[in-house]
What does this fold into?
Amino acid sequence: MATDTNVATVDGSLLESAANCLDGATIRALRELKLTATAQARLDELARKANEGQLATQEAAEYDRFIELSDILATLRLKAERQFGTAAAQ
It folds into this structure.
C-alpha cells in the first residue's frame, strides 16, 4: 500500500506543477475537451460491455486507460482552477 501512496504523491506533485503552467484560457479549453465521435462510440461500447461483464482482457485495459486519462485531465483542471482561481478561469 505504501507504493500506491508514493505513486499518488508523485502524480499529485507532477499534476500540481503542470497546473502552475496553465492560464485561464487553457483551463477553459480543458473544460471543453470532448472525444471525437469515433472515440466516444468506442468508449460507449466498452462501457456497455463492462456493465454486462463482457469485456475481454485487452478491452478492459483500453477501458481502464480511458478512465485513467479522464481522471488525470479532470485532476489537472481542478488543480489549475484552485491555483488560478475558479472565477478567473471562467
